[in-house]
Here is the input.
Amino acid sequence: MTINYRECCKLALRQCLDEEPRAFLMGEDVGAYGGCYAVSKGLLDVYGPDRIRDTPLSESAFVGVGIGAAMNGMRPIVEVMTCNFSLLALDQIINNAATLRHMSGGQLGVPLVIRMATGAGRQLAAQHSHSFEGWYAHIPGVRILAPATLEDARFMLPAALKEPDPVLLFEHVFLYAMEGELDASVRAVDIEHAALRRRGTHLSILTYGASLQKSLSAADALAAEGIDAEVIDLRVLRPLDDAALVDTVKRTHRVLVVDEGWKSGGLSAELMARVCELAFDELDAPPTRVCTAEVPIPYPKHLEDAALPQAATIAAAARRVCGRG
Amino acid sequence: MAELAFAMPALGADMERGRVVRWRVKPGDTIGRGQVIVEVETDKGLIDVECFHDATVMALLVPEGVEVAVGAVIARLDVAGAAPTAEGPRAPPATEPARLPPTSAAPAMPPVATPLGARVIASPLARRRAAALGVDVATVAPGTSGRISAEDVERAAATSTRERDPKEAMRRAIAAAMAKSKREIPHYYLWQSVDVTDALAWLTAHNARRPVTERVLFGALVARAVARAAAAAPEMNGAYLEGAVRSSLEVHLGFATAQRGGGLVAPALLDAHTLDVDAMMSAIADVVARVKSGGLKSREMSAGTITLTALGELGVDGVLPVIQPPQLAIVGAGRVTERPWVVGGAVVVRSVLTLSLAADHRASDGHRGARFLQNIVKNLVPPEAP
Here is the structure.
């Protein structure tokens, strides 16, 4: 049966609400409107207004409420419409959610899950299209997840809800409409490890989120030219799966990082640094990056496409890494 | 102030690359003209390369064990820093035979490997692979990226394993030189049977007064005769380079010598035209010994102006030899054999030798070749007093 990513997110929410009586969903327009990306459409009718709660347009306030509820025994799932708006709640996320266990000497945990949409590709312009998951991955005290497949969209949220500490889950806006068959054999996923999505021998493409599908397309094109690319889906952006990085570099000796964030000070820079720190002697070429152009994401489609990593630019960079560019 | 860039010499027309095996000098050393400064391994074996300047060594640019192309600068010398010599600045360029321009086989190619002390750009994996394979990463030529990759190291390791077989390398070198000769040089051949009975009688008398170790072999007589004839035959003695004959006033007679285990070299008997019979004999004994044991000098490998090949010991009557490029001619000698021979209208038994000449038709014609052959005979029978 064909299913899309959005429906997987909804099934994940339903599983959480069904299995965990302390769980509730809270955010802007998640109830009557059904969520701005329609993930929670219909849930208000099923679970009622106590568990599907619309909030005022005040990210700082409702994220703070979520933190308080979590500290007091609830299992809140807070939806922030896009990560661009989450900047209004940075103080709550970083100064409270991420630090309270440490500040309280282990007495107060914050078992909070925050879902947010991230990324570009839908012509929503610079204030709705940025990728800030790399920023959050800088912060100790939170776990950062980036589901890029139907299975991860379906099962990462229930796993996150079981965590004793805050988890931020970034759903890429471009993936909501992605359709496919959900692997029926998968009943749960871990939120610890990167995943090998395509095995190869000539280079490793390290990526996550919407860039995963673009990287897989690039890998198919490269295969036709005799370049056999391995594709690693990072999945968990904090803490990073160092062992998986080392493992793949040991196999291929060449690294291409694909990240929809900007290069400067970004997650791609962290990945490059770790590859060099942990697997320097395995490298046969300088690690290389394909990232978003260092501009606010443009509104016009052709400029937005040009600013983002695309399968063609990924393939071109892969050729260079392999000395064939 | 004159700084001299000392390049990997072409030790033979067919040499394209040489490996620096051992430096005999170090930076700061004062060296004299003719001093051996480096040992170089070529397809023809280990050669001592001499410098033909009084100079001070400024820098050695290629580490031991590294192979570079002919023409690559391997050392910098300060020529003015040393006492001037009689020849002064007109001294011939290092390692080149006098009055001959650099051979065509010495193109000014950039060094393939990295100069000593320069940073080697190699990937971390390439360095690790090189260490595991026992390859000096500085000797590896990088691919198009300019950075040495693990693949480049593996290719170099595979190549150097192949090239470590000296027999195969020598065979390739001979193949290249002889194919070039037959491809480019229009050979013509002349031969003549010569009564050498008187020469042998002279030799017997000459040797009778000497201890066994100082006895002269017949080959020395032939070598001397060829050298003297060559000194008077500019079309036979020198090189054919860039479409022109470059005659040499000196005769450096290449003496074709089979190597143990196969292969062939023809080190030059330097200034062979000036040697008397005894000196010729000791010169031959010297180079033949060094062909077997190593220690041939660079000048001996590159300076030959004409070659002699003698195969009589093996019973052949005569030989139609192939010219060693870029030389102009080669003389062949078969065995000395007793034959019926007409002398003064009567058939008598005489000792007869078949001499042959292969010469470059671009440089000379059969008429001159015949004269040259006659001159050899004249110098052979009877030998002049030494």
In short: The CA atoms of residues 145 and 236 of chain A lie 5 Å apart. The mean pLDDT of chain A is 97. Chain A touches chain B at residues 253, 280-285, 323 (CB under 8 Å). The first strand of chain A starts at residue 2 and ends at 4.
